[in-house]
Amino acid sequence: MIRVGIDVGGTNTDAVLMDGTQVVHWVKTPTTADVTGGVLRALELVLTESGFAPEKVGAVMIGTTHFTNAIVERRDLAPTAVIRLGLPATQALPPMVDWPEDLRRALGEHVYLAHGGFEFDGRPISPLDPLELRKIAEDIKAKGVRNVAISAVFSPINPEVEAEAARIVREVIPDAKITLSSEIGRIGLLERENAAILNASLQDLGHKIVRAFSQALRDAGIPAPFYLTQNDGTLMSAEFAEKFPVLTIASGPTNSMRGAAFLSGIKEAIVVDVGGTTTDVGALHHGFPREASIAVEVGGVRTNFRMPDVLSLGLGGGSIVEREPLKIGPESVGFRLTEEALVFGGSTLTATDIAVAAGMAEVGDARRVRNLDPAFVEAAVERMQRMIADAVDRMLLSPEPIPVIVVGGGSILVRDRVRNLPTIKPDHYPVANAVGAAIAQISGEVDRVYALAEIPREKALEEARSEAKQRAVEAGADPSTVEIVEVEDVPLAYLPGNATRIRVKAVGDLRLA
Amino acid sequence: MRWIYPENLEDIALGAAVLGTGGGGDPYIGKLMAQHVMRVHGPVQLVDVDELDDEDLVVPAAMMGAPTVMIEKLPRGDEIVEAFKALEAYLGRPVKAVMSIEAGGLNSTTPFIVASQLGLPLIDGDAMGRAFPEIQMVTLTLHGISATPMTLADDKGNSALLNTIDNRWTERFARSITIDMGGASMIALYPMTGAQAKRAVVRGTISLIERIGQSIRRAHREKRDPIEAVLEVTGGFRVFRGKIIDVARRTEGGFARGEATLVGIDEDQGHTLKIHFQNEHLVAIRDGEVIVSVPDLITLLDTETGEPITTEAMRYGLRAVVVGIPCADPWRTPEGLELVGPKYFGYDIEYVPVEERFGERA
């Protein structure tokens, strides 16, 4: 089956056409301000150059940074109301209490607290009050707000009360776009609620972007469905992405790591993705990026998304090199590399020029860097190798040797074995990101507190496993390929009855039939 | 006397996580709550314990319960005020000053909530000089001060009053009531006189955690080693540098117990360190030998950022510098060691002060 993977980055839009597990062809094109243009051009190029008819394409997978940028730049965000169920508890910290002022204003500060929610053991904190919710909904309606986030205390262990609240809001505002916190996050009320609010505020943009992508596909004559990649390297359908756009916000580094795993055939490795301005270093475990354990901020808002644990350093092909004393990056000429670098006739000494002078790459005109002092070039090359080696070292999990996979357009900066580890530059390494999108999988996750005094640990784990698999299948995974990739149980301090929080993640290949 | 403003709590919460020795609850939530209250009700006056009159009624404030509940079911906000009101009503006297029971973790900032709402001064000090898992583990116990009468209050408006024969019974009853209250409660306990406070309080610890936080953040700004900065302020020692390769956890007797294993890196290459914890870190064992134990503080700091790592955040692959910090003097007496020494926690070893093993710092 023919698939096209697309990576819409800040500088380039890459597209790769794959036949089953084979990379047939790839292209790099400039990203355009209107999304559709760049994607359409990449699609057309990759199809014409490879000679495939648009009808042959079975699926298109897209990785995008649109939603991240919208949050970071505070634009295209819809006015959003948030209703939290938990009274009388939780008033000490109302929703959005720790948000940056400008972002809170961008959403309109429509904050409501209501009764409902649960204790850790499932007892209700207080009963849901339909009248109270109806009044809140009327107020939201009167303000003309249509996007609503609903959170409830301990909803990850019982989502019922959030769903009930949503039904009531919809009775008053039939066209409300509602995000439930239980659908989007794990234990940790503020972070989960933040994710729900961000998601609700991205609904309108989600709708627009998904429409732009489907327009590009239609214009390219591709009748196949398309998918968006999410933070954990798995896919979501266009309809799901439209509902949960916030889940795309870390898909970039994830895709390049997954692509690196695929292109190299290695599942346990350190991935070094060298771009134009930065190098991202992450760790692969079972072929998936290792997740960050600490709360991750998006545009100044704490969230608990599943995000890859990535170390970014300011070294890339466009990094500016200073001579006395030797300094490389973090300043970069970025997308102006092909005008400003010495080898392209420019006047700025960049990391790419050093690589060409050292004979590590054939890019541009090598004669333009011929008179650089060889000792200086060697020192600069050494420095770059050490920067990368240090970053790799920080991501290593154990002293055992583990391969290093180098990908990305700036890979020419890596000369030899990193830290004396087996170092691999797989075929098609410049577009590992788009390849990662093309091979993304489907996942399902369970995160719940169990009282092990009432249910044996084995049984609890089994229940969580089968529910995670079920969720993966419901999200579109092929049941025969679904496997458990992560199991974690954390006993809850101070609680009796061996209360334990169990987290299980299942993934499988996309069901393409 | 000086004023503490909401922005000062950034440093206080960061430093509190260092003295939290892996436990003590998420200081982020505690900081947010206190800041939120202080923006409405005003800053808090931090006073030296010597500024109190001998007859003044002093009451410590704390949050009790499971850290996981605290990050999900946030408080209503004035539970702690209700706990104070209930205790005042029972005692028939007004509280004159608030105090922190533990300067480690979440409870370093909890007292600011009640101090700000009631307009009361907060004592610059605490009753542990760190965090410990149980109610009786305070210097106040060493001075014969009773934890009760004690009050607990929940988000629904329930409150309970305890009178017990000793402080370990207080721990037991308070723990069960807290669980019924939904796994978290706000408590007012150890009512004492100014005279008692002057004898029993570990002095200056709120200022100390503020200095610890400041030193970490200043080191970041000035691109210096934040760990060195922490050692300077706390008089602590670098005990081990390693990578966490395993964390085994289990729930026992209502606590998160477990052990973390680190393999050495750099100067500790080839060595292994195990850390046992009961909410807080108890002992550090290098190649089979205990090198730091309670009551001294064992804290893990991220090798890069110097930020403290809590037991709940410990995970495979994290790189940490293990730091040993000398505990407050009262813990080094025979009575202190009986209350919180290694033997109380089930380790049949003699306590050796951390500075005796690691020498005077250069």
Report on the structure:
The complex is a heterodimer of chains A (513) and B (362). With 513 residues, chain A is an alpha/beta fold. Chain A folds into 4 domains: 1-73 and 203-249, 2-Layer Sandwich (Nucleotidyltransferase, domain 5); 78-201, Rossmann fold; 267-423, Nucleotidyltransferase, domain 5; 442-508. Chain A contains 14 helices and 23 strands. Chain B folds into 2 domains: 2-203, CV3147-like fold (3-Layer(aba) Sandwich), CATH 3.40.1610; 225-356, Beta Barrel (CV3147-like), CATH 2.40.390.10. The longest helix of chain B has 17 residues, at 205-221. In chain B, helix 1 runs antiparallel to helix 2 (27-41), helix 1 packs across helix 9 and helix 9 (205-221) packs antiparallel against helix 10 (226-234). Chain B contains 12 helices and 18 strands. The mean pLDDT of chain B is 92. The chains are: A alpha/beta (513), B alpha+beta (362). At the A-B interface, strand 23 of A face helix 2, helix 3, helix 7, strand 12 and strand 13 of B.
Whole-number count of domains of chain A: 4
Briefly, what CATH class of the largest domain in chain A?
Alpha Beta
How is the largest sheet of chain B built, in terms of strand order?
A: 16-15-14-13-12-18-17
Structural class of chain A: alpha/beta
Q: Helical percent range of chain B?
A: 25-40%
Helix count of chain B equals 12
Shape of chain A: globular
User: Uncertain spans of chain A, ≥5 residues at pLDDT below 50?
Assistant: none
Distance separating the two termini of chain B: 34 Å
What is the fold's blueprint, element by element?
The complex is a heterodimer of chains A (513) and B (362).
Chain A: E1 2-8, E2 12-19, E3 22-30, H1 35-50, E4 57-64, H2 66-73, E5 80-87, H3 101-107, E6 110-115, H4 130-142, E7 147-152, H5 160-172, E8 177-180, H6 189-201, H7 203-219, E9 226-229, E10 235-237, H8 238-243, H9 251-264, E11 269-274, E12 279-285, E13 288-289, E14 296-298, E15 301-303, E16 310-313, E17 319-322, E18 327-332, H10 337-340, H11 351-357, H12 374-395, E19 404-407, E20 423-424, H13 432-438, E21 442-451, H14 457-474, E22 483-491, E23 499-508
Helix pairs in contact in A: 1-7, 4-5, 9-13, 11-12
Chain B: E1 2-4, H1 9-19, H2 27-41, E2 44-47, E3 57-65, H3 67-70, H4 79-91, E4 97-100, H5 110-118, E5 122-123, E6 125-126, H6 139-142, E7 150-153, E8 159-162, H7 167-180, E9 184-188, E10 192-193, H8 194-200, E11 202-203, H9 205-221, H10 226-234, E12 237-252, E13 255-264, E14 272-278, E15 280-286, E16 289-293, E17 297-302, E18 319-325, H11 334-340, H12 354-358
